[in-house]
Amino acid sequence: MKKIGILHGKERSFPEAFVREVNSRGEKDIVAESVYIDKLSQGASTGYSVIIDRISQDVPFYRAYLKTAAIMGTAVINNPFWWSADEKFFNNSLAMKLGVPVPKTYLLPSYERPDDTSPESFSNMAMPLDWETIYKEIGFPAYMKPHAGGGWKSVYKVNDPQDLFNKHAETNQLVMMLQEEIIFDEYYRVYCIGGKYVKIMQYEPRNEPHLRYVVDTAPSSQAMLDTIHDYTLRLCKGLGYDFNTVEFAIRDGIPYAIDFCNPAPDADIHSVGKENFEWVVKAAADFAIEKAKAYVAGKDNLTWGGFVRDAIASHAAPKAKTTASKPKTPTAKPAAKATATAKEAVAKPAVKATKKTTK
Q: Which tens digit of pLDDT belongs to each residue from 301-348?
């Protein structure tokens, strides 16, 4: 018997509907249930062929459980190792490499120094940063958000340099991104499951949560929808997410990927609506059953993104033979870059910056 589990918290509508949908299919030797944990021993099988993860981003114990399950062969949706390493600033850089437009973005060091560091820990950091260049490229108003995280937590709209510094002082040790504002004509939220099942939904993020999927105007064109479909697949395959949502803001006919790191996306019937809910339940069940059928005990059954697979392939490629070997010359290692710094780095520059409004 191959078991498909779903790991969740207080969420009910999607997990319960997912379990019912899988079990209603009558697949031989496949059953779905909510994950049940009564103990966790190192190197022990969890008994699940597939687990859909909806909660481990908030519960470290669950993340450790899923990594252990993956080591023993469980196909975890989404890959817990990649999700632990993932963050939004990297995602933006990868999107650019994949040819997907994203807003102009700069990474800001944390306002407060991380614990157990001192001013000397940041000798590689300019004090202050080159704010004049940052302001000129990003413009105002702009958005400041954590480089890792989600759920609209600690997201700020900043109107000028002073407003930026005042709000940055509230972020403590969070590493933040400063991002240009995209004034959009259309907005879309897209489900992507299994790197192939795609559901494009019109979305209005400025509405109240229960009204965000209620949009009266039709999409601008089929060509726009086709482009969004293509960009969604590029991003999810590049990142390696089996269950994700991607958000696009359309400005001057160009879809900008705004948010595409949502590996436990909202799937509650009360917010996404009946039609979208039924689609995501069915698509998730289809994919989970596919993964269960393909499951091989003891094998790595995780999905790895194109970025990781390409890196492994390049290292695994055989090296060209040389006729003569040369002695290796030691190469000096570059100085390690600081991951965060103190408020000295984000102090106001001596040169007054000129305000610019993003159009």
A: 999 999 888 888 887 766 555 444 454 544 444 444 444 444 556 655
Number of H helices, E strands in the chain: 10, 12
Residue that is written with structure tokens 């990474």 in the block: 107
Is the previous residue joined to 128 through a cis bond, with omega within 30 degrees of 0?
yes
CA proximity to 76, closest of 61, 43, 54:
54
Q: Which residue has the tokens 């973005």?
A: 105
Please name which of 349, 331, 291, 323 lies closest in space to residue 128, comparing C-alpha atoms: 349
User: CB-based contacts of 69: which residues, under 8 Å, 6+ apart?
Assistant: 45, 46, 48, 51, 76
Nearest to residue 144, comparing CAs of 204, 89, 95?
89
Q: In sequence order, which residues have a C-beta less than 8 Å from that of residue 54 and are 6 or more positions away? A: 6, 7, 8, 9, 11, 14, 15, 264
Per-residue tokens: 330: 């030691």
In what helix (H) or strand (E) does residue 138 lie, and over which residues does it extend? helix 131-138
3-state class (DSSP) for residue 139: coil
Domains assigned to the chain: 2-80 (3.40.50.20), 104-180 (3.30.1490), 183-262 (3.30.470.20)
Dump pLDDT digits (tens) for 120-168.
999 999 989 999 999 999 999 999 999 987 767 889 999 999 999 999 9
Residue 304: partners with Cβ closer than 8 Å, 6 or more residues away: 79, 82, 240
128 class by beta-carbon count within 10 Å (0-12 exposed, 13-18 middle, 19+ buried):
middle
